[in-house]
Structure formats: structure tokens, C-alpha cells
Amino acid sequence: MRQILVIVSSAILIAACSFGSDLRRAGDSDTLRLPGEPDAALPATALPSEVVSAADAEYRLLSNLYERASPSVVNIEAVTRDGDGTESDVRRGSGFVYDREGHIVTNAHLVSAVESVSVTLQNAYVRPAEVVGLDSFSDLAVLRISADAESLQPLRIGESARVQVGQRVVVIGNPFGLSSSMTTGIVSGLGRTLPSAELLDAGVAPGFDNPSIIQIDATINPGNSGGPLLDSQGLVIGITTAIRTDSGSFQGIGFAVPADTMRRVIPDLIERGRVEYSWMGISVMREDGGYGVAGLSESLELPVERGVLLRGVTVGSPAHRAGLLGGSVLVDVRGEEVCAGGDVIVAINDFHFDNLDGLVTYLVQQTKPGDEVELLVVRGRDTLELTLKLESRAADSGKLQDCHSES
């Protein structure tokens, strides 16, 4: 669309006339002034200090937050090498100090399958780092460096469950190698999912998304990955991980792994170097485009508008042993084939959720393999309470019972 700039001029028609004695002097100067013309404007004066102070309050908050948090943010360089020892790839990103034992938190995609990793502290000291553990499903990794405890300033992990859309957020990292850069913005969305594991490893089993992702509009670019997402108190509420882009550069949508996932994953990575996630053995249709329970309730005449509709159940899985049922009949809904007739899970351990992201978030953040959970299930017009014992995710999930199963 052409942008047309139109300059509107005001034509002032001055009638030539003789002012004669109406011309007068302004004070003792030689300046002539017309009748009725206002006095000359007085020189501008500074606003009262309290007004300036109130206007600058937000900037003082941000400056203070940066001064407190930036010493904890580090630069990470990960190197892969060819067979002859020459560098074949260098990945650069960010991370932050987790504790005074030298643990550094960053993204798994920065340090996965590399030969060496180095960490640069804000005081410019460079330390070699070992990868303690990484988890492709959450895209989180823990490194460890050898450094004096006095030089390590850990950041505190907050609670992402309290985060709200519209809340101010701050990102500190090293975009394009520019160390200790800060950008600000707001939380622009919640409850997103990312296929982190599939992006990291094409051979991983699909279908296990990284849940409860925080969407932000604070600028993040290559090099920001692994840096902390902070609230106004300086608490870490997430870790920057990805952007959505058509050009490779930031276009207003960034994503961060939530703090509650970090609180679940990081201790396991430090203790065991890996994370085991709870597995139920259910299959659910992708809910995008209105194919969750809320969007299907009218078409399928479901008695509820919240929860997770089961498409299928894996044979021999915890869900199968607990008696959960998948769908049994194919129904066309708005041009999509839906496997209908399955159970609807509406709550787990008295925690009611709206959709699949809510269920997966609870499983990831609140449970471990071996836990027994109580499910509230709607089957037709009946409500059931079922006990299910969670297991670890299996590499081979087995046969799925759903509308496409052989009879």
C-alpha cells in the first residue's frame, strides 16, 4: 500500500492596512507589537523534582534490576570439531549462575553433542565447563565450572504459575555476542507448547511437547538463548529458548521455558544427569484450531467443555491397566477426522484443567514415575474415579488402541 503524506498548510490572508498610532512598543525595546498580541512567552522552566522523579521511577527500577542481575548472567561458547581437530561449529548463547557450587543453567540445544564448552563470567574470567546433564524435552541443561564462590552470584528461581499476561518482563543475555544486554517487554501469552525434543533430535519419539511455555514480546535474538527471563523483583520466571520468525530475526514473538519446569528439571540434572518424566500412555488429537474439548463439545455432544478427550490408549500402559478407553468411531468435524467416543479426563489429583497443556504441565511439574494419581473421568454421561500408577516414558510405546485399531 502506498503511503501518501499530505501536508496541510494554513493560508493566512493578511489584509494590508495602516495601523498608524495603534503600533506600539513592547516595553522599552524597539520591538513593535500589534494590538491584542499576547506578551512574549517566558523561558521554559524545569518541572518540579517530584514530577521528574515519578516519571523516572520505572527506569530506576530497570537500572537497579540490571545492576543486581547482570553479574549472574554468563556468556556460553560451545564448540564442535572435525576429525582433524579444527572447529566445525561454534554456538554462542547465554546462561545464569544457579548456585555457588558452580552450576550454570542454560539451553540444551546450545550444548548438545559438542566437544567443549566455555563460560565467560561478567568479570571477563573464562572457565572451561563440563556438561552435568541436559534434557531435550525441556530444552534445559546444567553446566559446572570451577570458580571461587565469591565470584558466583546465583539468581533466585520464582514461580511461573503466578505469571500473568501483561506482566512486565526483563531479558538479560548476549545477543550477537554483545554481552550483558537488557531488553524489556511484557508477557504476551501463556500456555504455549514447543516440540523441543523433536527440534533437538529428529530420532526422538514425537508427541511429547514442552508445556506451559511463556510467550513474550521482549526482544530476543541469537545469543539470547539460555538467558534468564526476570520479573520486576529480579526473580527468574523463565529461560529464553526460541523465537517464531519467518526471516531468522526477531519479529515480536519469543518463548521461554517456565520457572516451574526448571524447578522440577534442574535438581534431577544435577543429581543424575537426566530427567525421567511421568507417562500415562494416552493419545490425544492436536487441539489447535478448536479441536480440544471446548471446541468439540457441541459437535460431539460432550457433557463437559473442559478436559482432555482421549483418542487412543497404548496397550499395556498405565492408562490401559487403569481402564481408560480411547475413541471408537470416526466423526467428521469441520472437515477434520475426529476419533470420538473416548473418555474425557477432567481432573488429576483434584486439579482441574482446561486442555492437554494443563494435564501435561501437571504431569511434568508435579509428578514423577511411580506416583499414583487419582483421575476424574467422564465416560458418556457417567463420572468415574480411577487410580493410575505412572511410569517412565518408554522408548517403544507399543500398540495404540483407537478408531484405527484392527478389530
Structure description:
- β1 (24-25) and β2 (32-33) form a beta hairpin.
- The chain contains seven helices and 26 strands.
- It folds into three domains: 70-151, Beta Barrel (Thrombin, subunit H), CATH 2.40.10; 160-272, Beta Barrel (Thrombin, subunit H); 278-401, PDZ domain (Pdz3 Domain).
- The strands form seven sheets. The chain has a six-stranded antiparallel β-barrel with strand order 3-4-5-8-7-6. Strands 9-10-11-14-13-12 form a six-stranded antiparallel β-barrel.
- It is an alpha+beta fold and 407 residues long.
- The two termini are 58 Å apart.
- The radius of gyration is 30 Å and the shape is globular.
- Residues 1-29 have low confidence and may be disordered.
**What separation lies between the terminal Cα atoms?**
58 Å
Strand elements, count:
26
- CATH superfamily of the largest domain, by name, is PDZ domain
Order of strands, widest sheet: 3-4-5-8-7-6
Give the biggest beta sheet.
Answer: 6 strands, antiparallel, barrel
Mean pLDDT: 86
CATH-assigned fold name of the largest domain: Pdz3 Domain
Strand content: 25-35%
Total separate domains: 3
Broad CATH class of the largest domain: Mainly Beta
CATH architecture of the largest domain: Roll
- State the helical fraction: 10-25%
